[in-house]
Structures are given as C-alpha cells and as structure tokens.
Amino acid sequence: MEQKENICSVAKKCGGCRYQGVPYEEQLRKKQRYTEGLLKKFGKVEPIIGMEDPYYYRNKVHAAFGRDRKGNVISGIYEEKSHRIVSVDDCMIEDKKSQEIIRTIRGMLKSFKIKTYDEDTGYGLLRHVLVRRGFSTGEIMVVLVTVSPIFPSKNNFVKALRKEHPEITTVVLNINDRQTSMVLGERNIVLYGPGFIKDRLMGLTFRISPSSFYQVNPVQTEKLYGKAMEFAAMTGHERVIDAYCGTGTIGIIASKKARDVIGVELNRDAIRDARMNARENHIRNVRFVPGDAGWFMEGMAAEGEKVDVVLMDPPRAGSDRKFLHSLLNLSPEKIVYVSCNPETLARDLEYLTRRDYQVKKMQPVDMFPVTDSVEVVTLLCNRRTRPKMK
Ligand SMILES: C[S@@+](CC[C@H](N)C(=O)[O-])C[C@H]1O[C@@H](n2cnc3c(N)ncnc32)[C@H](O)[C@@H]1O
C-alpha cells in the first residue's frame, strides 16, 4: 500500500479527509470504536472490512470553478461551511484520471473565452465540473455545470477536450441557474456520446446518469452489497422490496436470488436508469416505482400485500417515521438496512427494536477511507415470524 498519510496541503480547509495523517490501520480502529460506541447496545458489531489500497478510490469527482484574488481561474472544493473555493490539484481520495480531466478543462477556459461564474455578481458561465468514471468499463462522463445553456464553441470545446482525453465517452451540459448549494440543476443537454456511462458490479451492468446516486467506491461496494446479500440469505422464493433503490443496483443483484423485487425511489432519473438496468441485464422479476418509499410501502400494507424481505439504503438522514411505521405494518420477516450514517442508523434501530424487530448482525464496511464516514449493513429479524418448517 502506498503511504500518503501527510501529504494533502488543504486537508484542514477542506474538512473531507478528517483522518489525514492517521495510518490506515488506526483509521479502521477509530471507525470500529465509533461504530461500537453507537451500536453495541443492539448486539455484536463485526470487525470493519477495510481496503487494500485506500487511496484514489472516488469514482465521482466534483470541482467548483471560480477565481482567486489575483483573478486566476481556480478549481477545487468549497472551504468547509463556506462558499470560498479552495484550489485542489491532487486529492488523495479522488480518481486520478478524473482529476487530470478537471485540470485540462481549467487550462482550456482562457483560450475558449469561458468565464467562471461569480456568485456575488451573477457574472460568468461555468460553475462546476463533475467527472464520473466507470471503474470496470473505463467509461468517463464529464458534466459541465453552467448558468446558461449557451456555451460558446461547444463542439470545438468537446473536440479539444477529447483530443487530450480520448477516454471520455460522454459530455453533458447541465444548466443550474439558481442560487443554490446543489451542484446540479435539472436540465441536461448532451453534447457528446449517450449522456450516461455504464459500469459493472457483481457481474451485472449498470447505467449511471449525471444526477443518479451510484456508490463512489466501487471496490468496497462489491463487499458491501455482498454482505447485504449474505445477510438476506434468500432462497429464491422471497418477495423483496428495495427501498431507496437509486439506479436499482441492490434490487437487481437481489433479483437473482428472489421470486420478485420491487424497487422504490424518489429520483425519476434514477428510476429511468433502474428500468434500463433491469432490461440491460435481462432481469424480468423486478419492477421500479417512482415515489416516496414510506408512502408506497404504507399503501402495500393497507392492501394486505405480503413482503418477505425489505432491503433499505436511505440517505444520511436515515428513514423518517412514516417509513419506519410502514415497515412495521408490512412486517417483513427480514430487514437488511444499509446505512451510511451510524448515528441515524442507531436512532432507527432504537425504534424498530422497541417494537417487532431484533438485530441479528451488524457489519461495518470502510467505504470512505481517510474520511470519518462508516457504512454499516445490519440484519434485523421479525420476532413475530415463526421459523419456517424445513
Ligand atoms: C444512499 S442512496 C441509495 C441508492 C442505492 N440503494 C444504491 O446503493 O445505489 C439513497 C437513495 O434514496 C433516495 N431517496 C431519498 N429519499 C427517499 C424517499 N423518501 N423515498 C424513496 N427514495 C428516496 C435518493 O434519491 C437516493 O437515490
């Protein structure tokens, strides 16, 4: 493993890599202690699954664009809790090729007379650049986030960019003209290629659009999803819900071992991707529904529908009461909860374990080395379900 424990000059301003300078084994010990502190009251926390090479793993790289005091174009991250851009040239956790592409774009702006957007004056065009890379396919998507759909000499710009980086398979212009802290706006204009990239996970192919959620650490994602499937231990007869399904990854992987799967997700772009993903992988026993997961499951429970397993992977905020309530009403035999925030996980487990569920297994996975984030897969079983006759 390459040792890079002390090299990032902007770590303090960025706030992302809180474990900068901490040897990887020690990072894992800290994460284990933190997770146990929050979760051991529910049962045994298995030892965290770490990475062999914990650097340059992020396959989604975002850079904000602006100018420094001298008027030079800079690209990087926002200083913690502010909108001041800190110039970043070599981030130790982001994909190297994606960072190279961002540097190339920065160098091209002057000759193409493209101004970076200034939030205070409202003047300029380019706000952010997002690069996503398919780990196993090598496909690369570049998203140029601008305040206006009018991008001067766009065809020549794309041509020049691809000349430097022929690996780029698609370029998208995303229009974000609002005063918002969200990076992406709602409108996409495809400038080159199909407007999405594909990646392979656990032998299946997945399509990723500019705004769809897709795990950012592909090596650890296979371990994470592998654990989720191991915990669900399906036999091929189960009816499954993949709640908060994103582009359908977990549900499509689960469909191989289930009777049928329903995926639910708020983001319509992700649902479109999920449906395409099912088709692409010739999966017929899965369907995807747009909407609020809690609302949808409440509706299923009200109609007396039965579900055996709920796989759930909510955002950092965890699940809301409506969702947890719908879980109790639907009363699946097993819940496999994939969480990227042990604090909200602890809160939701408290709610579920005071009612019908018991925690059986908890497995932390290090999805974000050098940062202080921990992902945890938890298996809960329904106390009211009688064990099935063999
Ligand atoms: C952590 S991601 C998980 C995605 C997916 N399971 C995966 O591994 O790629 C959480 C997802 O929940 C979706 N989401 C957030 N709130 C939701 C809600 N109330 N109902 C359904 N989906 C929701 C987000 O759009 C996002 O795609």
Automatic annotation (TrEMBL):
Record-annotated active site: 340
Binding residues annotated for S-adenosyl-L-methionine, in chain numbering: 215, 244, 265, 313
Molecular function as annotated in GO: methyltransferase activity
GO biological process, one term: methylation
One Pfam short name: tRNA_U5-meth_tr
Alphabetical list of InterPro entries matching this protein: MeTrfase_TrmA_AS (IPR030390), SAM-dependent_MTases_sf (IPR029063), U5_MeTrfase_fam (IPR010280)
Keywords for the protein's UniProt record, in alphabetical order: Methyltransferase, S-adenosyl-L-methionine, Transferase
Protein name: 23S rRNA (Uracil(1939)-C(5))-methyltransferase RlmD
Organism: Blautia aquisgranensis
